[in-house]
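User: Look at the shape:
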Amino acid sequence: MSIESEYNKLLQRVALNVRRLRKECGLTQEEMSRKGGFNYRFYQKLESGKYSPNLYTLFRVAKTHGVKISDLLDRSSSR
């Protein structure tokens, strides 16, 4: 598997985990983006895997959801 392919899978895993955590909170994307101080369109792109978050963004998202960064990256969390 190429590095690019692995990276794209990682982006999708992060997107799925972020979406799952938001839904577990019972919030809409708009509500969660407000709660985390994110631009709504940015948050949509993050959840769809169309944005490659940097470490600071992952940290902010994790703090907003009350989890560790590793929880956003974890394969088992995306099930």
Observations:
- The mean pLDDT is 93.
